[in-house]
Amino acid sequence: MCLDGTFQPGDVYDYNYGNGHVYNLATQQHYCIPSQLAKLEYIDTSMEKMMLLAEKSDIQSIALPKIGAGLGGLKWEEVREIIDKVAATHPTIDLYVVENISPTR
Q1: At a CB cut-off of 8 Å and minimum separation 6, what does 37 contact?
Q2: Averaged in consecutive runs of 10 residues, what is the pLDDT profile of the chain (105 residues)?
Q3: CB count, 10 Å around CB of 82?
Q4: Is the dihedral of CA 14, 15, 20, 25 positive or negative?
Q5: pTM to 2 decimals?
Q6: Is 56 within 8 Å of 91 (Cβ atoms)?
Q7: Phi/psi of residue 45, each to 5°?
Q8: Which residue segments constitute the domains of the chain, with CATH numbers given?
Q9: DSSP labels for the chain?
Q10: Distance CA 10, CA 91 (A)
């Protein structure tokens, strides 16, 4: 989809595997070209689309990593503000963001 241009920044791909959904958010055009890294508007647009898809599918909770703040190059504090803003407009969905994780042994 990325190669043929049908999956663009701001889009969401909803993979329904039968027992749940995996939402793939397009938050950047390329992972290593500086001019094509993540943008806050892509985070905002794709988060909103994901939440609307989740509501239509009666999803009650979503977990996600620190999107856009790794290879995407964005400041986590700014991304988190967008996530919090979008989540606040969709109170029927519990949103869990994994900010830090410790390896298990």
Answers
A1: 28, 29, 30, 31, 71, 72, 73, 74
A2: 82 92 88 74 96 96 91 92 96 90 65
A3: 20
A4: negative
A5: 0.86
A6: no
A7: -65, -45
A8: 12-97 (3.40.220.10)
A9: -TTTT-S-TT-EEEEE-SS-EEEEE---S-SS-GGGS--HHHHHHHHHHHHHHHHHTT--EEEE--TTSSTT---HHHHHHHHHHHHHT-TTSEEEE----PPP-
A10: 22
CA count, 13 A, side-chain hemisphere, 29: 6
CA dihedral sign of residues 103, 37, 69, 27: negative
Can you give the pLDDT at residue 99?
Answer: 78
pLDDT of residue 13: 94
Helix axes 40-56, 76-88, angle to 10 degrees: 30
Query: What pairing do the DSSP bridges indicate for beta strands 12-16 and 94-97?
Result: unpaired
Residues in the chain: 105
Alpha-carbon gap, residue 5 to 96, rounded angstroms: 30
